[in-house]
Amino acid sequence: MLEPMKIGVLSDTHLTEVTPALERIIGEYFQEVDLLIHAGDMVGMAVYRFLSAFPLEAVQGNMDEFPLRGELPVKKTLTLGAFKIGLVHGWGSSLGLEERIRREFPEVDAVIYGHSHIPANHRKGDQLFFNPGSTSGYGRRPTIGYLNLNSQLTGEIIEF
Fold first, then answer.
1. CA spacing 20 to 30 A to 5: which of 15, 78, 79, 112?
2. In whole angstroms, what is the distance from residue 134 CA to residue 140 CA?
């Protein structure tokens, strides 16, 4: 029997320092998660240190400060339970973004990405594509997400 997991997913926080809004989001939505995943553009090392209080997996984004880029890989593959998950921020235009990142992870069950600030939670063939959107909003309502792992891998977008 596979042990269920609840994973908190965020991206595009775009913060140089920890703000009361980020503290509230983490406190309200992520206290009960087994793992926290950040799909890039944290921006500041202070945010990375704050999120590292949790079990954390993260990749760098194109807006991250130089010291943070030195800490984080551009992409990684995670094995969580029975599932392989690709994690990358993304690059370039939102148009065609999923096809570009799909080529980076041909053999995974899911791809978690950011960059576009557009939430996504859908399947293409056997792969789940999951973008939690932007925690800070930037012209849209702020969003985060959850991945639920049990006998299946499913995602959920939370808008606030």
1. 15
2. 8
